[in-house]
Amino acid sequence: MSGNNSHDPVLERAASYDELYRRCSHPVPYGPEGLRERLSYALDSRRPGRCLEGNELEQAFRCVGPPEMSGRTILDLCCGTGLTAMHFAYRGARVVACDISLAAVEIARQRARLSGIGSRIRFLRADARRLPFADGTFDAVFCRSSLHILVDYPETPFEVCRVLKSGCPAVFCDDPLGHNPVTELVRWFRRRKYRSCGGRTLKYRDLEAFGRPFAAMRVHHFDFLVQVKTLFAAQLQRRWLRRALVRLDQADEKLLKAAPRLRRLATKIVVEYRKGPLDPCPAVLAEPIRPEIAACAGAATSE
User: Fold this and answer.
1) Contacts with 113 (C-beta within 8 Å, 6 or more apart), sequence order
2) Residue 257, CA distances (Å) to 126, 175, 236 in order
3) Which pTM was predicted?
């Protein structure tokens, strides 16, 4: 941690998140089935409207590893209130979960304890710029909804790469890229009251810059047309609406595959980085990751 906290933007943002978490979050326990339902795709949920998760989270979990994760050690970076850390613990992994927000860590620790899996997860407050772990500690690093903040700190990707074992993935599940004017307008409106928490719109060049220490990068795109589901949260119980949204979801898959330039308009992304088999993760690289490595970004990589 910095010795002069008053001018450290990370700690200033942490204080804003502390206030937000203490005001809005509570350590509600979850069993395996309840957590699976909580994190499930909204159109697959048995209780639609309760949450509006997209199917990008399912893809992110697949990128981290197989359903059975016994013997693997996972770092949940910027873990928030611990839902995804608990998800990996229920799958058998040894989990270390960290966040710069002390309030988030406290809520996550209480939630895991109330859920009966507190002993399976090590929670701690940590700065992503200086991770307190040895080189090559983790089989995977997972991070949800924080890449748009972490890109502001150039030390972070090198730290993430350093603590990964060779050949292993770092998976980031995040907000839309900043190429869709509609989502940009919605994001601006929603983020006004959370401005002190930091973060900014991601562009492909940000993803490439963050990937400099890694051997490879892949971008998965989700929710183009089907993102209209957010307008109908209270009506998702209606079968006709769910059927219509399922059709839009199917259309999304075909459109994003057939028209790569539309991918920049998708409203959710999963970014998968992979450490090379003999990657030393140097502190500085002269050249950024090559655009062609981002295979799924297609023609949109040119930004």
Assistant:
1) none
2) 39, 20, 27
3) 0.84
- Distance, in Å, from the CA atom of 294 to the CA atom of 207, rounded to the nearest integer, reads 9
What pairs with residue 169 in β-bridges?
Answer: 274
What are the E-state strand segments in the chain?
Answer: 73-77, 94-99, 121-125, 140-144, 169-174, 216-222, 268-274
Query: 238-250 pLDDT, tens per residue?
Result: 888 888 888 888 8
Task: Read off the DSSP letter of residue 52.
Answer: -
pLDDT of residue 298: 37
| Residue appearing with tokens 């502390």 | 18
Q: Is the dihedral of CA 7, 13, 18, 20 positive or negative?
A: positive
In the chain, the N- to C-terminal Cα span, in Å, equals 35
Cβ 236 vs Cβ 42: under 8 Å: yes
34-67, pLDDT tens digit by residue?
998 888 876 666 655 445 566 788 899 999 999 9
The answer to whether 52 touches 45, Cβ cutoff 8 Å, is no
Per the structure block, which two tokens stand in for 12? Answer: 């200033």
Please say whether the beta carbons of 283 and 238 come within 8 A: no
Q: 202 by DSSP, 3-state: which? A: strand
Q: Give the whole-angstrom CA distance, residue 301 versus residue 303.
A: 5
Strand partners, 170: 141, 273
Residue in 133, 138, 139, 222 with CA at minimum distance from that of residue 174: 222
Closest by CA position to 91, among listed 28, 35, 166, 160: 35
State mean pLDDT over 172-199. 67
**Scanning the structure block, which residue is given the tokens 């062609």?**
292
